[in-house]
Amino acid sequence: MRRGCLFFIAGLAILLGVLGWLANSFVIQPARALVQDFRQLVQLESGVRRQEPYQPPASGQLSPSQVQRLLRVQRAVKEGLGSRYTAIEARLRQLSDRFSAQQQLDYRAALDLFRDAGALIVEAKKLQVQGLNAQGFSLEEYRWVRSQVYGALELGLPKLDPQKLLSQIASGDFNPQTALEAPAPNPANRKLVQPYSKELRDFYAFTWFGL
Q1: What integer pLDDT is reported at residue 13 of this predicted model?
Q2: HSE of 75, CA atoms in CB hemisphere, 13 A
Q3: How many helices (H) and strands (E) does the chain have?
């Protein structure tokens, strides 16, 4: 009986050790990497030449030029990543479809993408900064245009807060969540954006990282 208890305790200790290793490898380390990469993304934004405030129109209406400029930035990111983007394109589409009708973003899904993609998101951010400069976007204008474009598709965007994510992870919450916020759809914007709906939806998961 005593020997059986010892075997049980030893087995339980081994099981807990394996579970701890799995949690560290597949949850804790990717979560910390996520926060570190978010910090890099914020730092990279200092490379955008236009940092001035942007005053959006009171109507909330996009111009055709703004939609085209945003599309060019996104296309530049995809083209710059080349086969690395192609390798995760199906995964991006699955994530986009999964969260397209939700109001909360589960960053565990993002952790899966990070684990599979490595430093791809950081490289994508570098390409985005180049694209923003090439298209004459300020950070504020781009963020507003992106919000209106995806709002027209009834897709919300998260407010990224790396420090808050880090605090949640430090407290043992390895499944941080954030609200997906979208402006009220503008009929004129919907008409402008609709022809590019599939292309924009395929890129949607990238917007969770500020792209």
Answers
A1: 39
A2: 10
A3: 10, 3
Sign of CA dihedral 144, 134, 81, 85: positive
Q: Indicate the SS3 state at residue 158.
A: strand
User: What is the C-alpha to C-alpha distance for residues 146 and 200, in angstroms, rounded to an integer?
Assistant: 10
Q: How many CA atoms lie within 13 A of 105 on its CB side?
A: 24
R_g of the chain, CA atoms, integer Å: 21
Contacts of 205 (CB under 8 A, 6+ apart): 92, 95, 96, 99, 113
Q: Which amino acid is at 50?
A: R
Instruction: State the angle between helix axes of 83-99 and 197-207 in degrees (0 to 180), rounded to the nearest 10.
Output: 90
What is the pTM for the complete model shown?
A: 0.78
Cα gap 150→167, rounded to integer Å = 29
Alpha-carbon distance 113 to 209, whole Å? 11
138 SS3 class: strand
User: Which three-class secondary structure state does DSSP give residue 192?
Assistant: helix
* pLDDT, mean of each 10-residue run, the chain (211 residues): 49 39 46 64 89 94 97 97 86 78 70 63 92 97 96 86 64 69 89 96 87 87
Residues, the chain: 211
